[in-house]
Each structure stands twice: as C-alpha cells, then as structure tokens.
Write a structure and sequence with these properties.
7-stranded parallel beta sheet; 6 helices; about 20% strand
Length: about 190
Amino acid sequence: MTEIIPAILVKDFSELNEKLAKFVNISSIVQIDMCDGVFVSSVSWPMGKGDEESVQSILDEEDGLPFWNNLDFEFDLMVINAHKKFDFFARLGAKRIVFHLEAETEIDFKEFLESLDPYFKDNINIGIAINTTTNINKLEPFINYIDFVQCMGIAHDGHQGESFDERALKQIKDLRLKYPELIISVDGAVNENT
C-alpha cells in the first residue's frame, strides 16, 4: 500500500492554519514538521517564541489544531530528546509521532519506548526517522516498539527544497530485506520523479 502524506513546515499558527486548509478533503493526514533550532537550525511552530498562546489554548482544550475534525496529524519531531516532551506533543493532537534517532539519547529513548503507556500505544503510531548516513542496524534496539521507520530523502533535516538523496534507496532496500513487514516511509524531496 502506498500512502502520500503532505508535509508542512510553518513558522507560526497563522501559517499552520493557512497551509492545513489546502489539504481538507484532499488528504486524511498531514505531517507537521516541528523544529527546535537545536537539532536542526530552523525553528517552527510550536517551538518558536510567540507561539505560547496558540499552544496553550490547544493544551487547555479550548481549541484544537486547525481542521482537527477533518484531518489527522503526524508530528515529525526534529527536536533534541523529544521523547522527554511526549505528553506535550500527544496533547497537541498527534495521531502519529516521528522521533529522529539522531536527536535521542539511546538508553533513555529505549526506556521511554519500553514503558510507553498502553493507551498511547493503542492511539498513537510511533515512528523513528533516520538520516541518510545512519546505519539501519542502529534501529535494532527499538524495532519491536515502533510502528514504522521514516527514511529521510534529503541530506539536511529541517530544510525544504533539497534534492533527493539516493542513499535513502539503499536504506529502504536494506530495511525491507531485514524487516519484511515493517512500514517504511520516505520524507524529503519525494515527487513523481523520485
């Protein structure tokens, strides 16, 4: 099965609302890239200064993410040790959460995955993203605790407009051989040609 999930990287809540509106009745899920300015150089909603009001209204359940009744959301967390803020991202309305392996502390992250509350395991799909230089064997300690792996199709996480990095194709092939049933996604520079 092939599923195309549009991805957006936005600076603020207004831009989030504007971009999500384009996908209502077109897609059932949208990936929202979240950047902390530490793991990657860019900063995006909800990690930037000035985002507190929009974030707090969602956390207080006064509002939801724009179009929450029409769309599900996948959060691509380009955030250092994002697992430590899991409750925050879950409360924002994620249906899927992607952690970047290179941004996590291995021992803490494995303990987090092992001890994840069954409610979250049943309601939120957990994925791990790997960059184009990461050996797939680094996924081994986590593979039994996740729902999918996201191979990055670009060399620099957190940036849009880059060319497709063909090293992702080898990762995909190797993952398929090692884990035949694993859901594999690709993020970055994906288009009709690539």
